[in-house]
């Protein structure tokens, strides 16, 4: 299947400018061209773009993504280094997840605390209403 740059952008969730930028900085091999000379992205290109998007979502720097993309051109000979890059990034992601989980615990504690305060305030309001003879 072949996709125009607009369709590739839509399918990948990246902008047309980002696709051109990735091509310019050698993250993405220049796609084939159609008879009119327009970029024609393949399913393989879209799969690679999806992977690059995942790497960016993990916070991988462009510099490291470029290194990975360059190594990819060397095939299986570069598998060890590519694995090392991914393992290093996985470690960074795991650390970030742990940090976010700690933040989530703090948020949960604070929310629970405010719920207790609200319940206590509601109880006080009910008691005050009852002492004034106003039905709750």
TrEMBL record:
<dbReference type="GO" id="GO:0003700">
    <property type="term" value="F:DNA-binding transcription factor activity"/>
</dbReference>
<dbReference type="InterPro" id="IPR000551">
    <property type="entry name" value="MerR-type_HTH_dom"/>
</dbReference>
<feature type="domain" description="HTH merR-type">
    <location>
        <begin position="1"/>
        <end position="71"/>
    </location>
</feature>
<dbReference type="GO" id="GO:0003677">
    <property type="term" value="F:DNA binding"/>
</dbReference>
<dbReference type="InterPro" id="IPR009061">
    <property type="entry name" value="DNA-bd_dom_put_sf"/>
</dbReference>
<protein>
    <submittedName>
        <fullName>MerR family transcriptional regulator</fullName>
    </submittedName>
</protein>
<dbReference type="InterPro" id="IPR047057">
    <property type="entry name" value="MerR_fam"/>
</dbReference>
<keyword id="KW-0238">DNA-binding</keyword>
<dbReference type="Pfam" id="PF13411">
    <property type="entry name" value="MerR_1"/>
</dbReference>
């Amino acid at each position: 299947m072949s996709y125009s740059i607009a369709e590739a952008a839509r399918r990948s969730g990246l902008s047309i400018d980002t696709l051109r930028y990735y091509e310019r900085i050698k993250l993405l091999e220049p796609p084939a061209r159609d008879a009119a000379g327009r970029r024609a992205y393949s399913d393989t290109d879209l799969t690679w773009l999806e992977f690059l998007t995942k790497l960016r979502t993990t916070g991988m720097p462009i510099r490291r993504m470029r290194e990975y993309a360059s190594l990819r051109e060397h095939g299986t000979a570069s598998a060890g280094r590519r694995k090392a890059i991914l393992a290093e990034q996985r470690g960074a992601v795991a650390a970030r997840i742990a940090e976010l989980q700690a933040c989530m615990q703090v948020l949960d504690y604070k929310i629970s605390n405010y719920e207790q305060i609200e319940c206590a305030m509601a109880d006080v309001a009910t008691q005050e209403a009852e002492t004034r003879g106003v039905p709750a």
